[in-house]
From TrEMBL:
SUPFAM superfamilies: MW0975(SA0943)-like (SSF140423). Residues 186-213 form a coiled coil. It holds the Pfam family YkyA. PROSITE patterns: PROKAR_LIPOPROTEIN. This is YkyA family protein. Keywords: Coiled coil, Signal. It comes from Salinicoccus roseus. Residues 1-29 form the signal peptide.
Length: 213
């Protein structure tokens, strides 16, 4: 049977729910989930940093492919560094998808908590922010994956015998259009993470205040 990350996430969720069942209060359960969410958010940000580094390298790698091989054969046969760059970014998208599955699991954990004993507005704020983050992150990985497909097709087309200036120009425009759509989603995702951090901090602060009373 093929391995699926969703299956792994389900196992992790079940184990975590069992662990949380041993916590002495809903507040402790919530704080455990909030701590996990903070770590996952940090992991996502690290993946974005790595994506940015690879994107910054792409221009240099593309220029090298254009100048080092007059026939541009390395673009068509997949041996140019730009293709390795694309695959590295695909791997990062897989990492982001796994992180999103984990965030969804933490969301599910929090839904199991007795919210009658939670600060209602702050607790619901976290749940709503988690919804926004997971939806935006899913949309981002899907859009970015399509962008990578366009980049790969474009680079390969430049190495074909029939490639000309129009091939070059039209391909750039298509990829740029894809990128603009992707980064519009990224801007929404960044805002969703800001709101999640604010919601987490608010709930944590209120839970700590209640614990001190």
């Amino acid at each position: 049977m093929p391995f699926h990350y969703r299956n792994m996430a389900a196992v992790i969720l079940a184990a975590t729910l069992l662990m949380l069942a041993g916590c002495s209060s809903p507040a402790e359960k919530a704080q455990t989930s909030l701590s996990d969410i903070e770590e996952l958010q940090t992991s996502v940000m690290e993946s974005f940093t790595q994506l940015a580094d690879l994107e910054n390298r792409l221009q240099t790698e593309f220029e090298a492919a254009l100048t080092e091989h007059e026939s541009l054969s390395t673009l068509s046969d997949g041996s140019a560094e730009v293709h390795a760059n694309i695959e590295e970014r695909r791997e990062l998208l897989e990492t982001l998808s796994e992180s999103n599955e984990e965030i969804l699991s933490r969301h599910e954990e929090m839904l199991q908590i007795d919210n009658d004993e939670m600060p209602a507005e702050a607790f619901n704020g976290v749940l709503g922010s988690l919804d926004s983050v997971t939806e935006s992150l899913d949309a981002f990985t899907e859009s970015y994956g399509a962008q990578l497909d366009s980049e790969k097709t474009y680079f390969e087309s430049l190495g074909q015998d029939e490639a000309d200036y129009e091939t070059f120009q039209d391909g750039i425009e298509r990829v740029n259009d894809e990128m603009e759509g992707t980064w519009e989603i990224r801007r929404e995702l960044d805002q969703a993470f800001v709101e999640l951090e604010e919601a987490r901090n608010m709930l944590n602060a209120q839970l700590e205040e209640e614990a001190d009373e």
